[in-house]
Give the backbone structure.
Amino acid sequence: MTEDQTALCEELARAYRVFGALGWGDLGDGHISARDPERIDCFWMLGYGITFPEATADVMVLIDRDGQVVSGTGSVNLPGYHIHQPILAARGDIGSVAHTHTSWGTAFSSRNRVLEPVTQEACIFFEDCALFDDEEVQVQSLTAGSRIAQSMGQNNSVILRSHGLLAAGASVASAVARFVLMERAAESQMRSPDSQPIPADAARFAKADLVGEEHLRNTFNFLARHYGVY
């Protein structure tokens, strides 16, 4: 690995361990990707069969557009490849995609609706949350992943109907921070289904202060420090 690739994989491993500290991925579900800084049509992901708390830089695999491992010795998480590859291919501004099955997010996804700005944190997703309203909840092909990418459009988050949440960002840190905030927004709306949405102008004002790359990276770093993930 080059120095830049090593730094990227270390941050990616840290992100997986944050998910693990939150209790996610315990059934082997979920994945976080990171676009390679040199081969931009390839991305890194945790080798299949490695648990989130076990994630380190040296168990990441680099996957090409055809789903082949071109660096690393692990195997490919096929559902991850089917979901992440089309999104990264369609969105050159995205450097990372995060998805796993969470208690509140998965339950919320069965409502088949986008997040509303009912809390301060939920304002992040105002006018930036798409809905993948598709009956194929078991993503087993690039075709299905391409439909997710198409539904996502230029948004940085998408609700996968009856499947769960997916968030993206320019970096691993921002994608993961956005995903964690998404889960919290879903929890708020599940716990208080009759909440009154914040007015649009107020939601846009809050969003502008919360979605910057630096702010999201700081959120990620606070999460990692809180859970002792270094």
In short: The chain has a mean pLDDT of 96.
